[in-house]
Specification:
Helices cover 43% and strands 15% of the residues. The longest helix is centred in the first third of the chain and has 18 residues. With 266 residues, it is an alpha/beta fold. It starts with 17 loop residues before the first helix and ends with a strand. Keywords: Membrane, Methyltransferase, Transferase, Transmembrane, Transmembrane helix. This is Class I SAM-dependent methyltransferase.
Length: 266
């Protein structure tokens, strides 16, 4: 799939009810963590942390923190990863209940930042190697470029990761297999919420909006060549070294990535 369509997503809308947004985020967190979607990026990310001498990941657009536990566990297995590695979750719409649950399970290695954070204008006091998982497609090209430019302007390393390879097969899965999984697994999502059951089974707004947003997310994704073009426009004088490509997970799906760190020649 070589084209990109920036269609409407419910999750992007300020008026989208918080209870439905939380339901979507809980589902994504569970699936990304259970399937280990982002494990393949650990060697690349560990190398970037080593180059930038960072021991903290600053996650932008974190949602409910989906996948961060598996990423942290995979990174800790890398020989170049810092021993005191930690991760700070941020989002324009913070998810304190979900983040508190992740913090408890990781003994504080992963924690949330309570105030809203705009990924295009990250406060200077929030340090660390910036990462964005499963969220870069939410930004139209001007905003995506601005997000990268803000990292360059502040001299922060950045990694963009999408847990798909942008294919018709993945759209087919989003329309068929994944909704069935959502209906079967929802009672096991934590933290438990009665509202999640109500809006999944009695009034199935969470599954319906999740299906729509999941399909649209694939249409919105930037392939590696477009990620490189965005990086070049965000860093016109070439301060950074940029890597973009795709990695295949052992069970089939791809992860699309862009990593930028300050060039060693700077």
């Amino acid at each position: 799939m070589k084209f990109r369509l920036h269609l409407f997503e419910f999750e992007d809308q300020p008026w989208f009810p918080a209870v439905l947004r939380a339901g979507q985020m809980d589902y994504l967190r569970f699936m990304i963590s259970a399937l280990g979607i982002y494990r393949p990026v650990a060697p690349l990310l560990a190398a970037a942390l080593h180059r930038t001498r960072q021991s903290q990941l600053l996650e932008l657009g974190a949602g409910a923190g989906g996948g961060t536990e598996t990423v942290l566990a995979a990174l800790r297995q890398q020989p170049t990863a810092p021993p005191d590695l930690r991760l700070l979750l941020t989002d324009l719409y913070p998810q304190p209940a979900a983040w508190a649950d992740v913090a408890r399970r990781t003994n504080g290695a992963i924690r949330g930042h309570a105030a809203p954070v705009d990924a295009l204008r990250v406060p200077a006091d929030l340090g660390g190697f910036r990462v964005i998982f499963s969220a870069f497609h939410h930004f139209a090209p001007p905003q995506a470029e601005a997000l990268l430019r803000d990292a360059v302007a502040q001299g922060a390393g950045i990694g963009v990761f999408e847990g798909a390879g942008k294919s018709w097969l993945e759209i087919g899965l989003a329309l068929t297999v994944l909704p069935v999984a959502q209906l079967l697994l929802t009672p096991f999502f934590r933290p438990f919420r009665w509202s999640r059951l109500v809006f999944t089974y009695l009034l199935p707004l969470i599954p319906l909006t999740t299906i729509w947003d999941g399909v649209v997310s694939i249409f919105r994704m930037y392939p590696p060549n477009e990620l490189r073009a965005l990086a070049q426009r965000a860093d016109p004088i070439g301060r950074y070294q940029w890597q973009a490509g795709q990695l295949r997970h052992w069970w089939g799906p791809h992860v699309t990535y862009l990593i930028g760190t300050i060039s060693s020649e700077q």
